[in-house]
Amino acid sequence: GENVEQHPSTLSVQEGDSAVIKCTYSDSASNYFPWYKQELGKGPQLIIDIRSNVGEKKDQRIAVTLNKTAKHFSLHITETQPEDSAVYFCAASPQTGANNLFFGTGTRLTVIP
Amino acid sequence: NAGVTQTPKFQVLKTGQSMTLQCAQDMNHNSMYWYRQDPGMGLRLIYYSASEGTTDKGEVPNGYNVSRLNKREFSLRLESAAPSQTSVYFCASSELAEQYFGPGTRLTVT
After folding, report:
1. Which of B27, B31, B26, B47 is nearest to B90 (CA)?
2. CB contacts, 8 Å: B31 with chain A
3. Residue B104: its pLDDT value, please?
């Protein structure tokens, strides 16, 4: 099955700086890559996703890039704010059957005011 | 529109006890999922249901059973709880690729 690795496991940045989280995947058949944000005591919330026919996608301060050849994708958060502090998960899906997701192990982002 | 709801929020069981975690969604999604989340391991798929009437094993199905009661509801049962099943359990639903998660059930088995 798919194996997703995520780095770093923890990340601290000053408010206003950028944060980058990186993931690699193993299954070349994967073609859907979502990112989730999880706040303390809550379920994961989808913040952005990208499909394999696109190299980059932006939504305000958040962007995701995908390199299919190297099998890696990254989340970029610019102008970080304290409310961006959370755990972020990447995931990959081969979109067969029920669109099962395979998750990375998470990155705890702390934005220091 | 509540999205995905889960009950209970918290539960403590003794080893060997059984219980059922309930999940319901009001988004008319076809697919539903159960995940467990353990520290440092991300979310791992236990079982999923691609559509009403079907269920399939995920990555870590041992010790669990599921029932897709109807299109809205998908329950997870632990027949004989073990300490290794101490975890946070999340239910999710989807129509296409995007999955929407419930708030989770924190289960402790002593």
Report:
1. B47
2. 98-99
3. 96
